[in-house]
Fold these 2 entries.
Entry 1:
Amino acid sequence: MPAHHVLADLRELAERTSTPEGAQRLAWGPVWRDARLWFAAKVAELGLRVTTDAAGNNWVLLPGGGPETVIIGGHLDSVPNGGWLDGALGVTVGLEALRMFATRRPPVSIAVVDWADEEGARFGRSLLGSSAASGSLKVEDIRGLVDRDGTRLVDALSENGVDVDRMLDAHAALKNISARGYLELHIEQGPVLEKMNRSTGVVLGTFGVERHMIRFVGQAAHSGSTPIAMRRDAFLAAAQTALECREIARRHSTPDAGVVCTVGVVKAEPGIVTAVPGVCEISLDQRALNAEVLARMLADARTASEQAASANNVSVEWRDLWRIEPRLFDPRLLQLCEEAVREVTGDAPKLPSGPLHDAAEMVPHMPVVMMFAYSSNGLSHCKEEDTPEPHLLQTIDAFLRLVEKTVDLSA
Ligand SMILES: [Zn+2]
């Protein structure tokens, strides 16, 4: 039973690379390297071998009859004290796809890629290997990165055979592949499938993100002697904006296209119980799958912040932190994914991905689709991360069916 093989592999990997606190496969470190040795040994059992590209991504190629390649991706790295499925599910199901086709020459080549440093848990740069392969990585942005212990990223890379100045050679290598499609299976890391009581979901794309800091400046004043009407309270303007941002998310959400707004950072000054806050800075993170909706959400948030500022007699200033456009998956692969999920589970719920994934980096270069597995209590990046076994087995079956459909697709 193919799905049971994947389960056995996942358990073996977890056993080998976890502590009671969870998975410890931090990118570029010894446990991660050991996980990769484990993977290489599994691949060797099939008479195949792992090759590493210039960015440290590990590739396995099973040559097929035609010129095209179906790529299956995942990542063996984890956050510290991470879950057993995040990333590893994608790699082990890829391994099983190789097993399925190793004995019969597939009509197209099949490649499995274990992306390096998807999590960015050590140096703060997520999707490191896949962004090098996609060519979107700006080497200057990462050259100066240092981890908590003072180790430089460039040194950690070179310890693993990666030269930071040559990482983008991985992009040239990717461009040489005539990719029919990129498929990735991942745990949802959220509560949506659980809420629907569905084991498997079709992922429509990854959310676009707008991330900003909003700074309100009023006047710090004595809390006892300053009448309410005369205050210029920066915190209240921020609080009003935050509440309005929740309304913005509610207003722009539809039953099949939810959007989110989050105020995750609040800094008030002077931070004294007896002073009216004179300065308050909040973060705003907005996400949507539709670019126009995201733009309208941002415009609405700006208006809300200006209204709140004027209502509280304070000024407001915005500072951009980061943005990425939505990455929509391929309609044809989405259809195959939907068929596969429906055939195995009887239903095919569709949902966007809130987190970014390596798949998002592949969207500009080839047709892409992702499938999600049910996430118990919506938890991930922790040792409690899990998918109940029946749901996991069904999802693996559905994904392998998607692989077969994509391989068999007439070009
Ligand atoms: Zn992941």
Note: The chain has 13 helices and 18 strands.
Entry 2:
Amino acid sequence: MANSPCIAVVGKGGVGKTTIAAFTVKVLLERLCTPILAVDADPSACLAGVLGQEIEETIGGIREDTRAVAGGIPENIPKQQYLALKIQEAIIEAKGFDLLTMGRPEGPGCYCFVNNVLRDNLDRLTQTYRATVIDCEAGLEHLSRRTNRCVDTMILIADPTIKALDTLKTVLTIAAEIDNPIGRFVLILNRVPVGKEEAVRQAAAARLDLSKFEDVLILPQDDAIFDAELTGQSILHIDGRIPSYQAYRRFIDQLSPPLVK
Ligand SMILES: Nc1ncnc2c1ncn2[C@@H]1O[C@H](COP(=O)(O)OP(=O)(O)OP(=O)(O)O)[C@@H](O)[C@H]1O
Ligand SMILES: [Mg+2]
């Protein structure tokens, strides 16, 4: 679909990127903004699990040395076309959404190759979906390697730590330097203990220019997320009435312009 919106979730390791990416897919599914493309661009590949899916293939499994591919590339297929075909094979089809997992490169080769394959194909891929949600890696390789060329909404996440806030400062600096400007930034301060909301907001304001964000959401530490992790329950199947999800949904619903038109 032309101008299909792309939402990227970014932040330091362990702050809640995958959880928020899955929350976003859950909101879009509820709002029938389908089909959605969910992209796990983090080499540690956790999005599939929280979306209740099992990974079969990843972009990382596509070998840089294409001669190493079993059977090789048929001579009459150009390499780019072959890679596009392999990506299509790596996409898992689920109810209302598809999932593409980047994964780690296998054998010799480097992340540059995997990043480049994703970058070269992302714009084309996103066009056939109503919305794309990307769970980005903590090291921000996608930003620095200009893979996020089509981001309309960037959701920056920090837990209540100085390190996480400083990571977002770096994200904003890199984002300002990339070729395609990001549509808008929103900030989520995640896992904030009850009663500490104002202290955390002030700490964020001291480290970050909050005027750069269209909106700021403070999300509580939520035992229901802990329970889901403990039992392996998919985020898509947790009760939508849990406090963190309710707050997130309200936040998404009041964004203007909306996340997905
Ligand atoms: N608001 C919350 N309340 C309780 N637990 C949470 C909350 N947000 C995230 N978590 C938990 O914190 C842990 C880290 O979250 P998540 O995996 O989403 O972070 P991440 O940024 O994707 O991490 P990584 O960088 O390792 O991929 C998970 O166990 C998740 O269930
Ligand atoms: Mg993650």
Note: The pocket of magnesium ion (ligand 2) is lined by residues 17-18, 42, 46, 135 (CB under 6 Å).
